[in-house]
Amino acid sequence: MYAFDFVRPKSLNEAVEALQPEEAMALGGGQTLIPTLKQRLASPSKLVSLKGVEEIRGICRDDQGRVCIGGGTTHAEVAAGVPEYPALAALAANIGDPAVRNRGTIGGSLANNDPSACYPAAALASGATIVTNTREIAADDYFEGMFMTALEEGEIITEVRFPVPQAANYQKFEQPASRFALVGVFVAKFEDGVRVAVTGASEEGVFRWTEAEEALSSNFSPDAVQGLSVPAEGMIGDLHGSPEYRAHLVGVMTRRAVAAAG
Amino acid sequence: MTKVSMTVNGEAAEGEVEGRTLLVEFLREELGLTGTHVGCDTSQCGACVVHVDGKDVKACTIFALEAEGAEVRTIEGMANPDGSLNVIQQAFQDHHGLQCGFCTPGMVMSAAALLAENPKPSEHEIRDYLEGNICRCTGYHNIVKAIMAASGQDVSRIAAE
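YS: structure for the whole thing
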C-alpha cells in the first residue's frame, strides 16, 4: 500500500478536524479498508483512526426504546450487547469470522455500504436513524446505491438508532467462499407494518421490497409472499450466481425469514 | 516514522514504524517473532491471528500503531513458563492437529480465544469459531478433536481422520 500519515484522535472533535483535508479518510475497524489499501484501490494522504474515540463506542437505549449503537462499536460487541433485539444480535454474530468481528465496526460497515454487507439490511428494515457528527439521517434517505451513501466527505457516523420490532429475522444465503451475503433478507414486523430489506442482490445496493412489505403487513406468514417475485433485471450477475438466481433467492430468503420470525 | 510501544507476551516492546506498517510486520520484522505467519495477507486465512487486549484479531489487518499501548500475545507466548507446550499445543501434538504446521499458530491462537470465552464448546461451536482459519492439510477433523481434548472433553466419538 501507499504511504500515508496516521493520526489517532482522542475525541470526535479532533477526528472531525483531522478529516478536513480532502484526501483524509476515516479508519474504523479496517476490515475492509486495510485490504482495500493493500490493493491500492484507495490512497488517502492521511488515515484518521477512530479507535481512540471512546464517545462513539458502546450501546444504550433511548427514551423511545430504541437501541442506540455507537458507530465505533464492533460486531462482537453488538452480538453480545443487544439481547432485546435478537435478530440484530444474530446478524452481527454471523458477519465475517470471530477475528473480523473483534475489529470491524457498525459505523464502518454502514459508511462503506458494500452491496453484500449485512448491516445495511438491518438498518433499512428497522427504519434506523444514522446519526453523524452533523445531523440525523433516516435509513430510507441514507443508502444511495452500491458503495454510495448520503454521507458527506469527512462526516463520521457517531451512532445508529434502531427501533426494536415486534418480530424480526435475518436470513443470509452465504457466498460459500467469502461468507458475504449472496442474498440476505431482513424482515422486521412493527405495529404499523412490515419492512423488508434485501442486501447482496441488487446492483443498486440494499433495497426495500415494498410488494412483499404490503403483503406481509396484512398477513405475516410465508404464504403471503409465496406468489411474489422480484424482477431479475438489475440484480447482480457474477460467477457466484446469475441475476435470475439472485431474484429467486430473494423470495426464498424472505419466506424463510418470515417463518423464522414467527 | 512514529514511535510505537506495546506489551508483547508480557514484555515491553517498542520500535519505529510507518503509518502503513501492519502489526504482523512489526511482530515479525522488528521483534523477530516469526511464529505469527502471513498466509494470504488478505484477512482470509487466519494464520496471523494474535490476541490484542485479549481479543483474537488478524495481525495482517491491523496497523501496528492501532496496537499502541495494547497487550499483545503471540504463539511465542503460549508455552508454559517452563517451556513445555501448553494444553492446547500439547493437544494439537497428541491428536495430530497439524501436518505442515503453517496454519497452526493461528489455529492455536483462535482456539485459545474460543476456550477463554467458551470453556466447553461443542464440535459445532468449534467448527463455527474456526471459520476464519484455513488449513489445507488436515481436513480440520484432528484440529477439532485437539481443541475438544484441550477443553477436557471426550473425543472418542469424533471422526478420527
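YS: worth flagging: Chain B has a mean pLDDT of 95.
IM: good catch. Also Chain B touches chain A through 27 residues (CB under 8 Å).
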